[in-house]
Amino acid sequence: MWVTDTTGDKPARAIETALQKLGTDYLDLYLLHMPFGDTFNAWRAMEAAYKAGKIRAIGVSSFMPDLYTNFRIFNDVQPAVNQMEINPLDQQGAVVDFYRQQNVQPEAFSPLAEGLHDIFNNPVLTKIAQSHGKTTGQVMLRWLTQQGIVAIPKSVHKARIIENFNSQDFDLTADEMAAVKQLDLGKGLLWSPRNPTDIESICGSGRPDSLK
Ligand SMILES: NC(=O)c1ccc[n+]([C@@H]2O[C@H](COP(=O)([O-])OP(=O)(O)OC[C@H]3O[C@@H](n4cnc5c(N)ncnc54)[C@H](OP(=O)(O)O)[C@@H]3O)[C@@H](O)[C@H]2O)c1
After folding, report:
1. Protein residue closest via CA to atom 21 of ligand 1
2. What is the pLDDT of residue 212?
3. Residue 86 near residue 149 (C-beta atoms within 8 A)
4. N or C: where does the chain have the smaller number of CB atoms within 10 Å of the terminal CB?
């Protein structure tokens, strides 16, 4: 659900629109796109659709543990998933551990770091890839799923989509997992849900009329 759809009676309509566009009478999973906007109002509509059987599971995106805890306490249905940036350069180890303990499935967006920092040619990943006869992209995806993190890579190329699917038939060794751990830059590559300038940029155009 877009930030712009979180206010007033828009959330219920957004869910119906998604169902119509997909030509289905239920969704497996529906997420809040951002931890911004009227997230509580949006969640009430998502909870109602969940209880009505229109959505099998509901979740959030880019919620940090402090905000999530407040959200969980004051809502009825606990999020099933938190989708957040996780890749070898932004590993979010403590945050991932927190969500595991909360029984919330961590899901990685930008699992290939969007190719930033020349990651597909990273020497550590290249060495691991060569030792398994795999590509660096496949190493990044297996590194995630081996930790129980769902990965949703994006490609517009059929060959890469197939390559990305074929990333689950090998295991990184403990030494290789430790080597990837050293690549962590400890910060988001694209934006931060805690950076006021980023929040202004994401939400600025989405302000409800009453707040303009
Ligand atoms: N919740 C959120 O706020 C949020 C934010 C960002 C993204 N997402 C979700 O996460 C998904 C993936 O994230 P993302 O698109 O940001 O980044 P990503 O999957 O980490 O990287 C996508 C980039 O990698 C390239 N690529 C993909 N597979 C490759 C391969 N095997 N070899 C070489 N290059 C490859 C793609 O190029 P080509 O397409 O040209 O192959 C594209 O430039 C998105 O589709 C979106 O649904 C969610």
Report:
1. 114
2. 40
3. yes
4. C
Distance in angstroms (rounded) separating the CA atoms of residues 131 and 141: 16
Q: Which of 96, 186, 190 is nearest to 143 (CA)?
A: 96
What's the token pair of residue 3? 């930030």
Residue 189 corresponds to which tokens in the numbers above? 């590559």
Pocket of ligand 1 (CB under 6 A): 33, 61-62, 83, 109-115, 120, 137, 152-157, 160, 163-164
Nearest-atom index, ligand 1, CA of 157: 41
How many CB atoms sit inside 10 A of residue 116's CB? Answer: 14
Please name every residue paired with 108 in a beta bridge, in sequence order, or none if there are none: 84, 151
Please give the Cα distance from 71 to 210 (Å, whole number): 24
Residue range 59-77, pLDDT digits in tens: 999 999 999 999 999 999 9
Q: Where are the alpha helices (DSSP H) in the chain?
A: 10-22, 39-51, 65-73, 93-101, 123-132, 136-145, 158-165, 174-181, 196-203
Residues 150-200: tens digit of each pLDDT:
999 999 999 999 999 999 999 999 999 999 999 999 999 989 999 999 999
Q: CA–CA distance from 92 to each of 6, 44, 64 (Å)?
A: 27, 28, 10
Looking up tokens 């957040």 gives 84
Q: Could you give the CA distance from residue 122 to residue 19 in angstroms, rounded to a whole number?
A: 41
Angle at 178 (CA atoms; ends 175, 183), nearest 5 degrees:
135
